[in-house]
Automatic annotation (TrEMBL):
GO CC term, one of those recorded: oligosaccharyltransferase complex
Keywords (A to Z) from UniProt: Disulfide bond, Endoplasmic reticulum, Magnesium, Membrane, Signal, Transmembrane, Transmembrane helix, Transport
Annotated TM spans: 195-214, 226-245
Location in the cell: Endoplasmic reticulum membrane
GO biological process: magnesium ion transport; protein N-linked glycosylation via asparagine
One Pfam family here: OST3_OST6
Family, similarity comment: Belongs to the OST3/OST6 family.
Function according to Swiss-Prot or TrEMBL: Subunit of the oligosaccharyl transferase (OST) complex that catalyzes the initial transfer of a defined glycan (Glc(3)Man(9)GlcNAc(2) in eukaryotes) from the lipid carrier dolichol-pyrophosphate to an asparagine residue within an Asn-X-Ser/Thr consensus motif in nascent polypeptide chains, the first step in protein N-glycosylation. N-glycosylation occurs cotranslationally and the complex associates with the Sec61 complex at the channel-forming translocon complex that mediates protein translocation across the endoplasmic reticulum (ER). All subunits are required for a maximal enzyme activity.
Protein name, UniProt field: Tumor suppressor candidate 3
Organism from which the protein derives: Diatraea saccharalis
Location, primary (coarse class): endoplasmic reticulum
SUPFAM superfamilies, per the entry: Thioredoxin-like
InterPro entries: OligosaccharylTrfase_OST3/OST6, Thioredoxin-like_sf
């Protein structure tokens, strides 16, 4: 009967129940079931996506993303997780000196979160390399690298969801602090042990101790006022040049671009390491003029 009735309806081109109360009641009765089925389907899709991301994170803390993966896991719903994505250009042909340094710090943050007690599936770390995901750069209208962006669970990224390296710095601690501001997830940074500083300090200590031992019968130079004055002046030049800022923020030595290397940072909230050396040398060369200006 159902097959014949449908054929009759198709031939007539009219629905005897269309516009009737019976038809409206059926639509209202079907709507909750449709919404429920859509909710169940969305739930299982979300569970599958989250499980896939969790499995990829177990293998590697930073998930490599191409255009298809970026659209599937970062842009497309359903999602109840945030995604931190670094856009970079790691190929040597791109001549991005800062990219490797930022990537190393980014890896430290991702590993710190992955192996911490606060780890959960509400935040994931990814990376898009220009040579493997140029379409993503074009879609987001990114013209520079590196860039670290936060893609929230709901809504579109805001201007504050792009990290400002000039203001915050590029150290892992700065990245973790920025992530906490955007996601309320606190990440305690665990750096791998680096014994180079300890070894350098031990060698310097042995060198100074050996020198003082050889000159143990003649230590009058320690009371030389001119020597201590010169050391104090060089220390002041180092501080004025921004060397302490370099130690805190960890800027790159210089920046490579398509038009050649850049030694002076164009922003007002950043500098390069080589730039501080240039300022220190200029301060030494023009020390008399500087002193005269201070006296005046």
């Amino acid at each position: 009967m159902f097959f014949r009735a449908s054929n009759i309806l198709s031939r007539r081109g009219t629905d005897p129940y269309k516009g009737s109360k019976f038809h409206l009641r059926n639509i209202k009765a079907i709507k909750p079931a449709l919404y429920y089925n859509l909710f169940i389907l969305s739930y299982f899709q979300l569970e599958e996506k989250t499980q896939q991301l969790t499995d990829m994170t177990v293998k590697k803390s930073i998930i490599p993303l191409n255009f298809n993966k970026f659209k599937e896991y970062v842009k497309s719903p359903p999602k109840d997780y945030s995604f931190i994505v670094m856009f970079t250009a790691m190929a040597p042909a791109r001549r991005c000196a800062i990219c490797q340094h930022v990537y190393d710090e980014y890896v430290i943050v991702a590993n710190s979160f992955r192996f911490s007690q606060a780890y959960n599936n509400k935040i994931f770390f990814g990376m898009v390399d220009f040579d493997e995901g140029s379409d993503v750069f074009q879609m987001l209208r990114l013209n520079t690298a590196p860039v670290i962006m936060h893609f929230p669970a709901k809504g579109k990224p805001k201007p504050a969801d792009s990290m400002d390296f000039e203001r915050a710095g590029i150290h892992a601690e700065a990245i973790a602090k920025w992530i906490q501001d955007r996601t309320d997830v606190q990440i305690r940074v665990f750096r791998p042990p680096n014994y180079s500083g300890l070894v350098a300090f031990a060698m310097l200590f042995l060198l100074v101790a050996g020198f003082l031992y050889l000159r143990r019968n003649n230590l009058e130079f320690l009371y030389n006022k001119q020597m201590w004055a010169v050391c104090a002046v060089f220390f002041c030049f180092a501080m004025v040049s921004g060397q302490m800022w370099n130690q805190i923020r960890g800027p790159p030595f210089f920046h490579r671009t398509k038009n050649g290397p850049v030694y002076i940072n164009g922003g007002s909230h950043g500098q390069f390491v080589l730039e501080s050396y240039i300022v220190a040398i200029l301060s030494i060369l023009f020390k008399e003029e500087i002193f005269s200006l201070c006296v005046e």
